[in-house]
Structures are given as C-alpha cells and as structure tokens.
Amino acid sequence: MKVFLHSGDLDEIRHEQKRGLIAGVTVDPTVLAALDDGARRDLLGAIAASCAGPVSVSVRAVTGLPGMLDDAAVLSALGSNLVPALPATPDGWEAMRRCAARGMAAHAIDCQSPADVERGGRAGARWVSPAFVDGPGEGPVLNAARMAEGTRRTYARAASVLLGPLSRPGQALEAAIGGADAVSVVFAALQRLLAGDRRAPAAAAIRS
Fold this sequence. Notes:
alpha/beta, 8-stranded parallel beta barrel
C-alpha cells in the first residue's frame, strides 16, 4: 500500500520527500483556501517541484464545470504532476472525463456511495476517495475502504482507492485491511507511525 502525505506545509513535504517514504502528496485544502490566487500558485508550483510523485489539489470551484476545467488547466500549467481533485458530482465527473481525454490524471474525492466510486472510475479518474467520518474508533475507515475497493474491483478497475486524510496511525492498518491501494496521512500521524516498531502491522502496511 502506498502512502501520501496530507499537508500544505512545504517544509513537511520536502522533509518526507527526502526520506523517500511517500508516493505523493494530497494538499490540505484549508491551507490553499487562505491564500490569494498568486500565493496559491506560488505554493503549488513549489510543491510540484519538490515532490517526485503526484500531487492532488482540490479545485477552487466545487460547482460549475467551467470553473473546474479552468482550475485544472492552471494546475497543469504549474506542474505536470499536479492532479485536480474533483468532487463526485455530475459536473465533477464530466470534468474527469475531459481531463482524461486530454491525458491528465484526475482524483475523484468525497465519494459518498459505491455509485460515486463507480462513476469516478468510469469517468477516468486515476484515484477515487470514499468519504468517511473521522470520529472515535477505526470502523468508518475500514468500512469506507471495503466499500470503495469492492466497487473498484467490479466496475472501475483502472482506478486506485486512495483513503484519507487519516489523522491517526491505526487508521492506516484499517485502510490496508479494507483493501485500499493508498492512504493519505497527516504529518503528525505519519511521524508517530514511523517512530513505532517497524514490525508493527500499521507500519508494515505503508511500507508494503
């Protein structure tokens, strides 16, 4: 299972990139929301240049196809590894289809149901992320992973299940048990996970 870092902090991203343990980054949308257009572009350009793998970025427009496509084009111009994260909505699925037609990867996020996972995969998304409630206990993560993985195997085989953001180390194991292909983990949780016993199941899951 691959691990992505969920962060909007350039220092955190560079730190983990140097360690060679992350497959990519999912950029924290709350960080980007606080920036104007110029600062957002500067940060994303720096992240793209610092990360060898894919960098998933939530589009600014969560409704309206034109806005989604415009932001996808901005991301493509900033870095070839920047991937638009698009909502599981009719406009989002159409944006995924158009990105795929142009040879651009896309990430279907906030999939609320098996049907959303299927539609994202059929629309050409490279990653699909099921929604889950990050509350006490690990059950929601396991259930979301199983739902998405079962649907992907049946209907959307080209897509990979990326579960996150995860805020606790144990959730990585839950995601692995559920069959997720990748997890996105916040910096603090990743440090706690990697600081533990390397033989621990959760740590082994992200190293496999």
